[in-house]
Design brief:
The chain is built from 8 helices and 8 strands, in the order αβαβαβαβαββαβαβα. With about 270 residues, the chain is an alpha/beta fold. The chain has one domain (about 10-260): TIM Barrel. Strands 1, 2, 3, 4, 5, 6, 7 and 8 form an 8-stranded parallel β-sheet that branches.
């Protein structure tokens, strides 16, 4: 009579780790619905400075590029139209084919808000969009790159797809939760960092850039000089990068599967 086969505790642990790893790999593979091409770049624009309407949008049109504009009513100077776009200009961005998305209504840091306060901020921004015939935003950018678990919960409940932060590293859809998409921030003095970053858009990684005013009349520490911005666009064009809006990532990423990835608890 044969003796029953028993696995040692050590072997059970090894098998558990192996099958757990295979499960993670399988889930990650399901996130990507189609191969992500090398040289894929997402352009995002924050805070609603007037130069996004007067300079950036026409230049994007010239090069045939997409882009996402994360708009808000930035206090205390939103009424100053020498600094910030009007809602009519934001409306025109949408009509020109660009994505208009949420940056909260008043640029509130999500780590300083209750769930109810953040929900109200998002609802108010969505209401403004509805007033001007702009589709309801389904993507979000964290003001000042601050994140918080409450924000993850609110975004999920409201059906948001992607949320972008900072971090200065490429976006890996198989690893990074879609509510924590990292990006590089362009400034007047970091050209080499941005050029180096663009070389990392390969092997399934996506380069996301965050751009404020071009120039930024309200916040000069995040300004991007117009000549430098056009240099970036010309480089992307001449080197055959594919430049899209954040919403276009759904062509490559299964959002429902991606949202199964882990999020920090605090």
């Amino acid at each position: 009579m044969s003796m029953p086969f028993r696995l040692s505790h050590r072997m059970k642990r090894v098998l558990f780790l192996v099958f757990s790893w295979l499960g993670v790999v399988g889930a990650a593979a399901q996130v990507v619905r189609r191969p992500i091409p090398d040289k894929l770049v997402v352009l995002t624009f924050d805070d609603g400075p007037v130069t996004h309407a007067t300079y950036v949008a026409p230049l994007l049109k010239k090069y045939g590029f997409g882009g996402t504009f994360f708009v808000c009513e930035f206090p205390p100077d939103f009424a100053d139209k020498t600094k910030y776009m009007s809602w009519q200009q934001m409306q025109q961005l949408d009509r020109s084919g660009f994505e208009v998305a949420s940056h909260t209504l008043t640029h509130k840091h999500v780590n300083k808000l209750t769930k109810e306060q953040l929900t109200a901020e998002l609802d108010s921004l969505e209401g403004r969009c509805k007033t001007y015939g702009i589709p309801r935003p389904v993507n979000f950018a964290y003001p000042a790159y601050d994140t918080h678990p409450i924000a993850f919960q609110v975004l999920k409940e409201k059906g948001y797809q992607f949320a972008r932060t900072g971090g200065d590293r490429p976006y890996d859809p198989k690893v990074d939760h879609p509510y924590l998409i990292p990006s590089f921030t362009t400034k007047a003095g970091n050209k080499q960092q941005i050029m180096d970053a663009l070389q990392q858009a390969k092997g399934g990684k996506i380069m996301v850039l965050t751009i404020h005013g071009v120039p930024d009349y309200a916040h000069d520490w995040v300004t991007t000089p117009p000549a430098l911005f056009e240099e970036y666009l010309k480089y992307l064009h001449d080197n055959h990068y594919k430049v899209i809006a954040l919403r276009d990532l759904t062509k490559y990423i299964d959002v429902q599967e991606a949202q199964k990835l882990s999020l920090p608890a605090n």
